Amino acid sequence: MPPPFPHLSRRQALQTTVATLVALGLLLWWLLPLGESPPTGTITFSTGTKAGVYQKYGELLRDEIHKDMPDLKVELETSAGSQENVRLVATGKSDFAIAAADAVETYQHNRDPGADQLRGVARLYDDYVQLVVPTDSDIHTVADLKGKRVSIGVPNSGVRLIADRVLDAAGIDPAKDIRPRAEGIDTGPKLLGHGLDAFFWSGGLPTDGLKQLAERSAFRFVPIEPALVAKLHAEGEPTRYYRATNMPASAYPSVQNGRTVPTMAVSNVLITREDMDPELTQWLTRTVIKSRDGIGRHVHSAQLVDVRTAIYTDPVALHEGARRYYRSVKP
What we know:
By secondary structure, the chain is an alpha/beta fold. 37% of the residues lie in helices and 20% in strands. The chain contains 13 helices and ten strands. Strand 1, helix 2 and strand 2 form a beta-alpha-beta unit. The N terminus is likely disordered.
């Protein structure tokens, strides 16, 4: 027969109860670090061009933020893309934005205004470089773009930054060796074969603008070979975030016909400033992570957002509010 439980005095019982409550309180503080009342006020969030993934992701994230923080107004602002987004956040004209890591690194490398104030909230998903031509085009390599009418993205976009670098690595001067055009994903697809011989795009897979193009006309992708990416790596700091990869055959099935496409990718980071309110940033970080599946049903690339990789916001350090959230869910 097991021994009976020892009898506790009132004092011992009280001490045990207090110790249990303290332990429980610490556990709750660790698991639920957010304040009881959701943040209020107004924040600005810079996205990108219409028909791009940044814009779609921003719209869906705004809806999720409203569910968690109903009294926080989120003002979405379209922009040229990554380069402009970095500048807007660094100079205090936007509170949050999505930007490709190479654009962030370039801004810091140039020591542009407010570069030291940039902080990371979460690593999101990768952008894939997509070089698009008509099906019957005689363009089969990046070098074949010489003398062609090529959209290299709008000024201050991440596309422009990457297109210029890819062309240069292929021995093409973007200002002299092609007939450059400044079209975004909202206008470029409509002009393909009608004023444009090719256009560059860098975005999550798939991008709505290209999905819509695939529904009405045929096109194909020009490969960006690993040797070209290796050449970019040799150029120094800002290009170290590019990685050689393959665009999966499932990205645009009707166009790729079961074939992958050699290309390169760069990670996207949700950024803010060091002086952004830590509690608000903590709440927003939680929303970003927990809304992955919901947003991912509409923006496929968002399915790749993961708490285990979100903390790697290179080239910027984590914001203190984001750091608090990741600590709270640390396994």
